[in-house]
Design brief:
The structure is a homodimer of 344-residue chains. Chain A contains 10 helices and 13 strands. In chain A, helix 1 packs parallel to helix 3. Chain A is globular.
Chain lengths: 344, 344
């Protein structure tokens, strides 16, 4: 890889270089990069605008010793898209701000933007603005995503009602176990020349950590089957934490069943290898970017038709609290042990 | 001031604490903080949506040894509002993301949000979302602002035409000179016990640096007088840099007149004291957040009626280049020496 100092381009040259391969696809993207603001058109009568933002910091959210910059760019986008899908919306535009310390070259940042571009193409999203700056230490990525919702169809966290069914897509804990594996191999490789990390048979959990996807396929199925989720969010901090968010926002309780929590076999094998509790990892691991949602009991037959979605429990009256029913039929109170940047 | 570690609250507790004094004012703010996305309504037939974002980093954009956190919060908002006004729009919503290192307490961050709240109240803007995270070093602030424009009235950088008049609001170079003064006093105070910085007679330039305002009053006057700017932007990197942006985007040249560049007397005195070239400071200082705009020659009489706006030059054919006409009638090519985070 060539190494070109960023100062050779300057801020405006850098923006031009980084955004040259991006083109605008949406009618709602009236004007993109290059003015004081981007101009968007969300004037459709039935339309509402969704806005979400995420801050990703080196040393807190990612470790560049094992995260390739291209994957990082991709993931930084996907975590935002996931938030828009979690409202039953469609992501349309992003702004990307990056803070870059001296150890990064133009080629490095171009790699990052390559990942951003691929994610934008994959999910049909336009890059419309941003900001670039030097940083004192490390890499900083701040992405804001604007999406389109249909009035009356946007799904909040607050609409779950007693007797609703609780569903989750995909499987849980894989990204977390992927992270454990990456960290184990990083430690094993320290000081070892030509160290080759051993990921054989664990490719899936590595991919779940490094290159997560947002579940727009589930959103598409929900629309096709005319399902009406009463509440929805994406699983970023762990299922326990998100269940409690829905219960709190909706003023309800819940029961989820341990034997229904979807877990991939690679996740299970990794937990076994590391002597970790598998259900704890699945409930609290985080970064799954699966969709957690509730539907009225009357839609039971419809959700049976959803591909890659599992019914894991039901919503209860608030006074019944939030519990997991274990395999031996005892009840375990759900507590948020989700990822918290301030306590680790 | 009490000192409470942020980890005592956790991420969600912190967000709740920081946003408790914010309320939603706009009809377009359908739902704010507390879900995967904010929901906005920009479905007005004549409406378009404006989006801008700014990344502010400790050690690059601000120095907390002389910038109070409340002022910083205020300024972080205002620089975004200024970008929306510079499109002839009205700022309506912001998302605020902060990265916080261990040396900051809850009380510190509450100060920052106090400044953000005051700016939001002053400018009639709703806080609708954001993200908080620990950071490895220093304070990181990323704000995205959403604003409303009227279709056909939004002003880009690209519409300036030959013979248009060039106008600028307020005066230039004051914020830059304020920064020089703050840095001088910081250096003078190093290692001196009970040092009192001497700002007497320089309060205006200090305020321009620490607590800048966005020129919505100018936008209001432009509407009242039915003026039609052909191009507009805010002066954040210095007049020279912004003039070149307009010339490049519009495919035109320009002539501005040295003796028409508006400069406050405190700016002049400070430049004298520091033995700096006054016009260079005014042309390249940056952080003025004044509005630079062009209007058709036919609106000459109208712009005479604008308060606190000065006619500083005219747009020319592109082949005539971009020059400043000095007091002795020679022509000086305009070069962007504006602030650049990557070369300082």
């Amino acid at each position: 890889m060539n190494e070109t100092e960023i100062s050779t381009l300057g801020e405006f040259g850098l923006i031009k270089e980084l955004t040259k391969n991006f083109s605008l696809k949406h009618k709602s993207s009236v004007m993109g990069v290059g003015d004081d603001c981007a101009i968007l058109d969300y004037s459709g009568e039935d339309t509402e605008t969704l806005v979400t933002t995420d801050l990703l910091l080196e040393g807190i959210h990612f470790d560049l010793t094992y995260v390739p910059l291209r994957h990082l760019g991709y993931k930084a986008c996907v975590v935002n898209f996931s938030d828009v899908y979690a409202m039953n919306g469609v992501p349309k535009q992003i702004t990307v701000s990056v803070g870059i310390s001296k150890r990064f070259t133009i080629e490095h940042i171009a790699e990052l933007y390559d990942g951003i571009r691929i994610a934008c193409e994959e999910y049909g999203v336009d890059l419309v603005g941003g900001d670039t700056s030097a940083s004192v230490t490390g890499l900083i990525i701040s992405i804001t995503c604007v999406g389109e919702g249909v009035k009356g169809k946007t799904v909040k966290r607050s609409g779950a009602r007693d007797t609703d069914l609780i569903c989750v897509s995909g499987n849980l804990g894989a990204a977390y176990m992927g992270l454990q594996l990456l960290e184990r191999e990083r430690e094993a490789g320290q000081g070892v020349e030509d160290f080759q990390p051993d990921f054989a048979g664990k490719e899936y959990i590595i991919e779940r950590q490094l290159k997560p996807e947002a579940r727009r396929d589930v959103i598409a199925q929900i629309a096709e089957l005319d399902i009406h989720p009463t509440s929805m969010m994406d699983v970023s901090d762990g299922l326990s934490s998100e269940l409690l968010h829905i219960c709190q926002s909706s003023g309800v309780g819940c029961r989820v069943y341990e034997d229904r929590i979807p877990i991939d076999y690679q996740t299970a094998i990794m937990a076994e290898e590391l002597n970790m509790n598998l259900v704890t990892a699945a409930m609290n691991g985080g970064e799954d970017y699966e969709l957690l949602f509730t539907v009225p009991l009357t839609e039971h037959d419809k959700i049976e038709q959803l591909k890659d979605v599992k019914l894991i429990g039901r919503i209860t009256k608030p006074e019944l609290g939030a519990y997991m029913v274990t395999r031996d039929d005892s009840e375990l109170e759900i507590r948020a042990q989700g990822w918290n940047a301030f306590t680790e």
